[in-house]
Amino acid sequence: MLDGLATALASNGIYWIILASIIAGIVRGFAGFGAGMIFIPVMGIFTDPITTVVALQIMDGIGALPLLKRGIRDGEPRHVARLTASAVLFIPLGIYFLATTQSDIFRWIVSGLIVVLLALMISGWRYTKRLGPAGTFGVGSIAGFMSGFFGLAGPPVIMMYMSGPYRPEVTRANIIIFFFLITIAGFGMLVFRGLMTPERIWLGLILVIPYALATLVGQKIFDPSREALFRATAYVVIVASVVLSLPSWS
Cα 133 from chain centroid? Predict the structure, then answer.
């Protein structure tokens, strides 16, 4: 096991990876999401996709725990639990389509739809009534399918909260809870598939402390009264997630 630690510490680009984890943590602590969109492209330069995903799951699953207390206090854990359960149900369907279909055209279509919805959000479009069980299930199922199909669970959930009658602190809190729960589910799937090698586990654990400290910095910066800054940050992260997931980067 200690050999795995030595291998992780000797990873190519380890200092850049740690720096990326710190920046990702600040954004995660402030907005409640967005760590993967910063961390994955940087770490992907130095290592393989599976190692990147495993390290992210460990880093975020453990490192974001300090955010969870405030998330549970400000958010709606039961509502988010139902949302996450529907997402988890549809992740295998997304993986099935990923493995059996020509995905590029569909990915362009989904990315285009997200851009349209984002434009509506920026324009000031809102819905005034909270989504009921059916609407929540629908958003969760889309998020789960997108997670399995091309690794993006966040945009549908983020848009649901940011376009609805939710205060910024509730939006941020619910997103924090959702990503924590979906990360735990993803961690379980990685364990089930036997992808947790000692080197990958140690690399994720090395990043936990700088990432966790950075999330606390981001949380300290967050101010519910500065809704415009919160929304602007969320919009930038959503756009980045769409752009980086486009088939043209494959």
Answer: 23
How long is the chain?
250
What type of residue is 22? I
The domain tally of the chain equals: 1
Listed ranges 20-34, 147-161, 180-194; the one with the highest mean pLDDT? 20-34
Largest CA-CA distance found in the chain, in angstroms, rounded: 56
**Which residue do the tokens 């609407």 mark?**
135
Nearest-angstrom CA–CA distance, 116 and 23:
28
**Residues sharing a CB contact under 8 Å with residue 12, sequence separation 6 or more, in sequence order:** 46, 47
pLDDT digits (tens, 9 = 90+) for 129-164: 888 889 999 999 999 888 877 667 888 898 888 888
* Tokens matching residue 130: 């909270």
The two structure tokens encoding residue 222: 């967050």
User: Which range marks the domain in which residue 116 is found?
Assistant: 2-249
Q: Count Cβ neighbours within 10 Å for each residue of 99-127 and write b for 16 or more, e otherwise.
A: eeeebeeebeebbeebeebbeebeeeeee
Distance CA 158, CA 80 (A): 12
Q: Which class for 138: exposed (0-12), middle (13-18), buried (19 or more C-beta within 10 A)? A: middle
Q: 68-80: string of b/e by CB count within 10 Å (b at 16+)?
A: eebbeebbbeebb
